[in-house]
Amino acid sequence: MPTHVFALSEGKLLALLEEQGEALFQHNASFLMRVYPKGTRFTSSNLDPAPFWRQAGVQMVALNWQAVDAALMLNDAMFANTEGWVLKPAGYHDVHEVSVKKKGLDLTVPVLAAQNLDASKSSTPDVYIKCQLHVESRLEKQEGQIPNEGKSKGGEWKRRSSHRHSHDPDFGGEDLSFLGVENVVPELSFVRFKAMDDVSYQKDRMLGWTCFRLDRFPQGLHLLPLRGADAKPNGSALLVNIRLNWDDSSVR
């Protein structure tokens, strides 16, 4: 039973990870730790929770909830369909008995179609699909450090489809592939989809999103409901045919 909880700002935790990374990981296998955004995030931006979970073994990553960004999407996927907590993977809570189990991954997602995108608007969107893998970065792998000073960003692997001018675009099974991905902890890694409207001379608009932990990502043909910028289901969906293969022997 944990007997204390440490709460650190992201800056202090990053410094501690660099100075005493192994000791920090060992501590968090038996005791609780919370990390929170630094006070200089005046725009309420977020840190990326995934590397704090993976590299430091932190249990609680506090986030700003003013806008649904990548960090909140990952957090939603981590705790989806649970009571608000999940058991750490093997090697994160029993470090003296089991090592962290990492796998190789080949993922191909043929994008078949989407429906009901931006249906409330009379103008027709110019739609493309973004797919990103949030997995261990090169800096995490080689140095055990958290990249980009913990800033929330896109995934380490990124793919996007071609464009379709439609509320109900047909992508014809266009493949979004991620082959030869190494050192993946499935329970702490994620795949994220966004349906985007390509707007000329402006920032592209997000029409819907969904995110999954990789160990929960379903295989086969699926109609994935999408959510809007308020994180609520918006009536749109993405039809995909998921092919996912794990390789226990490909860790390098």
From TrEMBL:
Molecular functions (GO terms): phosphatidylinositol-4,5-bisphosphate phospholipase C activity
InterPro entries in alphabetical order: C2_dom (IPR000008), C2_domain_sf (IPR035892), PI-PLC_fam (IPR001192), PLC-like_Pdiesterase_TIM-brl (IPR017946), PLipase_C_Pinositol-sp_Y (IPR001711)
SMART domains xrefs: PLCYc
Residues covered by region (Disordered): 140-171
SUPFAM superfamilies: C2 domain (Calcium/lipid-binding domain, CaLB), PLC-like phosphodiesterases
Positions of the PI-PLC Y-box domain: 4-92
UniProt-listed GO biological process terms: lipid metabolic process; phosphatidylinositol-mediated signaling; release of sequestered calcium ion into cytosol
PROSITE patterns in the cross-refs: PIPLC_Y_DOMAIN
Pfam families named in the record: C2 (PF00168), PI-PLC-Y (PF00387)
The protein's name: PI-PLC Y-box domain-containing protein
